[in-house]
Amino acid sequence: MVDALNARSITQPFPVQEMVVRDALAGRDLLVQSPTGSGKTLAFGIPMVDLLDPEGQGPRALVLAPTRELAGQIVVELEALATARRLKITAVYGGVGFGPQIAAVRRADILVATPGRLEDLIGRGAVSLDRIQLLVLDEADRMLDMGFRPAVDRIVDQTPSDRQTLFFSATLAGAAGKVAASYTREARAHTHAEPERKEANIEHRFLSVDSQGAKLEHLVTHLSGADAGRSLVFVRTKRGADRLVKRLRSRSVNAVAMHGDKSQSQRERALARFERGEVMTLVATDVAARGIDIPDVAHVINYDAPEDRESYVHRVGRTGRAGRTGTGISFVLAEQAEEMRRITTSLGLTDGPSRPERVAATAGTSSASRRRRNRRRRSRAAA
Q1: Residue 230 CB contacts under 8 Å (≥ 6 apart), including other chains
Q2: Do 319 and 300 contact (CB within 8 A), yes or no?
């Protein structure tokens, strides 16, 4: 296993790994508050592959993840470690056929799954959880936000009561804390509080815009610039993602969308093209982008404002990874300014501009918008 880590140039543990690995190897249940991109996958992966006996049969470790993308990335992260210990790891999630997954599950020692697909496989009699020794809930707060609590409860109830449980979440407050307490026994809590502060290698910019039209024109200007680099653009809705991609393409900006209505193969293809640099702009919803770990994203752009502080942290945290620098750009309409100030103040972004930078609409955009509004008024009056 050490050789597998060295092959990836991993020689020093991240803080969350230092906190977690020793207690996990000792068999303790753990509650871990830690953000994405902090090294938490290896924090549970290292003790997992160390504790499992390669001679066992059937899945003995289960990792529950909220999205297909995160499940796939966990397997990629841990596959070399598992192979070094002669363990098989596989992921199961929706959007692909059952046949290959059923065959893979029967050979797996470590099973990484989204709750919905795992319940489907259990219902088909394709997998049993009665040999699970170690249960990991990764990004548990996001699973709760997505409405997976009932499914997770049913899955956990099918695992042995003497299992070891590791609960990872961006927050341990509120509902997440109560759920964690119901799944664990005498758990030790660890907090890795990176989300509470501004990352020194990320520049935060806030651009005040007068209208949706001005926002689009400024986005096009940025993405068409020589220094745009690989840019991840966040929107709130699936329909909004498709609409924005269509508008960008009409302005000669090559972009792809990734959201929950895309098939698994479409999502994987879009992400692969973005990673390879074939497409430099990926437009995504929050849930679809959960778990994306691409080291060289130059810009994260909040085209639609984040819903809350946690959403801002998750989005902007997609840049400035692995020691690189990055920039988070947020477009702010007048009605969003106060909420954005609350978010940035809570994150300690006091060294940023006290008021957003102003971006005026171009004359063409403004006049076009006025013409459209006037046509709508005339239509309503005629009716």
Answers
A1: 274, 277, 280, 294, 296, 297, 298, 299
A2: yes
Two structure tokens written together for 278: 């074939």
Domains, the chain, ordered by start? 2-195 (3.40.50.300), 197-368 (3.40.50.300)
Higher pLDDT, 338 or 168: 168
- Give which of 128, 116, 57 is closest to 92, Cα–Cα: 116
In the 8-state DSSP scheme, what is residue 336? G
How many CB atoms neighbour CB 134 within 10 A? 21
Residues 130-154, mean pLDDT to the nearest whole number: 92
Contacts of 209 (CB under 8 A, 6+ apart): 215, 218, 331, 332, 333, 359, 361
Separation CA 379–CA 180 (nearest Å): 56
Q: What is the residue-averaged pLDDT of the chain?
A: 84
Strands, E, within 304-367: which ranges? 326-332, 357-359
Q: Pick from 40-54, 171-185, 186-200, 289-303 the range whose average pLDDT is largest.
A: 40-54
Contact 244, 301 (CB under 8 A): no
